[in-house]
Specification:
By secondary structure, this protein is α/β, with parallel strands linked by helices. It has 2 domains: about 70 residues, no CATH class; about 250 residues, P-loop containing nucleotide triphosphate hydrolases (Rossmann fold, 3-Layer(aba) Sandwich), CATH 3.40.50.300. Helix content is about 25%, strand content about 30%. It has a 9-stranded mixed beta sheet, with helices on both faces. Strands 1-2-3-4 form a 4-stranded antiparallel beta sheet, with no helix packed on it.
């Protein structure tokens, strides 16, 4: 109290086992910040809680933070600005082109700006190539992008198109090199880069890699955390593409291993089929919220120029079963 009368801002630092302990210091102090630390397997997670701040309303809850060479970085939740909310709720927002011929037509004229799109498919089906085309199309139109890569090489991203965009300064990379990542950290870094770059497009490649990058304690609430990520990006008015790894199971039709497909505004599903002892790829637009879209299953190929969408396999039926039958032969 004497130091307060001197107008001195004072930090009292102590070690306490339990915040519920009765202690006169807790009562006298104007603010109380509690630091926590937990270890699960080889993962260490640090969290901070503002338990008291006299005369102010602190943000409730536990917030993750990281200690590195630069000091302490807290990943507290942030809200979109008024300008970002205005842009996100604009009714006359144009459609976003994807950069893949025929795909915009399948989406009903492109992806509505501010939407979140989930690209779900097995390994090698071209999810990262499609998301790279999405960023490249934005750069061609003068729009900046941000990619959070969770499946990158130690020396950089795998996709050469994305690597060129990063080198040109059209796309910013958020690398997952830091251990024990939290969704709060991902959201804060994404918001920071979106604002710095004034980005209109965001890619998360992939949700499967993101889950593996999380500290074990954060994986339990992955669905709730993903909802927070999607709603935050939507509130900022950016258009987001996420990729998700799926096993090719021909006995059921799923779009996300996490049961989170309902969170996204649009879904593109990719799968393999066997025709004449050859492995072929097909894709379909499963949903585009509030918009008409194609219900066609179209074959596509991947070459040096990216994804090329072809025609429907009208002579085949049972495509989603993985081993379609020829109608002519059946008849």
């Amino acid at each position: 109290m004497l130091m307060t009368s001197w107008q001195a801002t004072t930090f009292l630092i102590g070690e306490y086992a339990n915040e519920a302990d009765a202690n006169p210091v807790f009562t006298v102090a104007d603010g109380l910040i509690w630091l926590r630390q937990s270890v699960q397997r080889n993962s260490m997670v640090r969290k901070i809680e503002i338990m008291k701040m006299r005369g102010q309303a602190p943000v409730p809850g536990l917030h993750s933070f990281r200690i590195d060479r630069t000091g302490v970085e807290v990943f507290a939740p942030d809200a979109p600005t008024a300008d970002e909310v205005t842009r996100a709720t604009a009714k006359d927002a144009p459609r976003v082109t994807m950069g893949v011929p025929r795909l915009d037509e399948m989406l009903g004229g492109g992806l509505p700006r501010g939407y979140s799109l989930l690209i779900a498919g097995p390994s090698g089906s071209g999810k990262s190539i499609l998301s790279a085309a999405f960023l490249a199309e934005g750069a061609r139109l003068g729009e900046h992008g941000v990619i959070a890569a969770f499946e990158s090489h130690p020396n950089g991203v795998r996709n050469t198109t994305v690597a060129k965009l990063i080198a040109q300064g059209s796309v910013s990379l958020i690398d997952s090199g830091a251990p024990d990542v939290s969704i709060d950290e991902v959201v804060v870094r994404l918001m920071r880069e979106v604002r710095r770059m004034k980005a209109a497009r965001v890619v998360i490649d992939s949700l499967s890699g993101l889950e593996l990058s999380l500290a074990p304690t954060f994986r339990e609430d992955f669905r709730e955390s993903l909802l927070r990520l999607v709603t935050t990006m939507a509130g900022m008015g950016v258009t987001m593409v996420m990729t998700s790894e799926l096993e090719d199971r021909y006995t059921d039709l799923r779009f996300s291993p996490y049961g989170t497909a309902f969170l996204t505004d649009a879904i593109i599903a990719q799968c393999y089929i066997e025709v004449d002892s050859r492995l072929r790829r097909v894709m379909a637009v499963v949903k585009v919220r509030g918009s008409a879209h194609s219900d066609q299953l179209r074959e596509y190929t991947i070459d040096a120029d990216g994804i090329q969408i072809g025609a429907m396999l009208t002579e085949q039926e049972g495509l989603l079963g993985g081993r379609p039958t020829d109608r002519k032969k059946r008849d």
